[in-house]
Amino acid sequence: MLLDLSGKKALVTGIANNRSIAWGIARQLHLAGAELGVTYLPDEKGRFEAKVRELTAPLNPGLFLPMDVQNPDQMQAVFQQLESQWGQLDILVHCLAFANKADLAGDFSATTAQGFRTALEISAYSLTSLCHLAKPLFSQGASVITLTYLGSERAVPNYNVMGLAKAALEASVRYLAAELGPEKQVRVNAISAGPIRTLASSAVGGILEMIHHVEEKAPLRRTVTQQEVGNTAAFLASPLASGISGQVLYVDGGYCITGL
Predict the structure, then answer these.
(1) How far is CA 1 from CA 7, 33, 81, 165, 232, in A?
(2) Cα(first)–Cα(last) distance of the chain, in Å?
(3) Per the residue annotation, which of 40, 159, 250, 255 is the catalytic one?
(4) pLDDT tens-digit map of 109-133
(5) Given the DSSP bridges, would you call strands 138-148 and 9-12 parallel, antiparallel or unpaired?
(6) Known catalytic residue: 149?
(7) Does the reported pTM lie above 0.85?
């Protein structure tokens, strides 16, 4: 197997259920030999923890920790535990995005200030804060991978404030790549995936119509799968992608080239 991540330590954020793109990435990293650390969003009744723990059990994660990116103490605790247990980090996977459902339908101009701040903080700023915490732990040639979408550069119906958040995320990728590359050759890239039915995407008004449109117009006449996005992430995490940084890679069946 050309793509071998044996011995690599990978922290994967954003797994919610078996439809999550983060889950597709985690599985492919595991198949390539990486040891996984998994974070979950804590809730009062522990439902997310139980669901994610059961789902990821076959991947045998070496770390399984709560992390709400709006809670600095929790974020700090994750990296303290990572340093204590692993000592370094080779792969950081950022699959975190959120906007209020009311801000993902109707008029963009109706976005509230609080909704704007929430979307930008969770969906974009969280990558910057995670990289800041991880910076002392990154190994030589480490890889940071995040998820974006075409709505960052086109006005996609109902994507609204999330489009701005993804645009900010992509700009963050470039600035982080410029910062983290010189000393340890750390690479930072984004995958722009086509629309996939996930818990997060279900909040976007008209998501099924978006998926059907891609199936009709993309050169491959289909949307993509979690596994295909996971394969791309595994590639970006590997030495095979050692010369790629600061980029957005489109995994969308070619839809981005159509102009439709």
Answers:
(1) 15, 11, 32, 37, 15
(2) 38
(3) 159
(4) 999 999 999 999 999 999 999 999 9
(5) unpaired
(6) yes
(7) yes
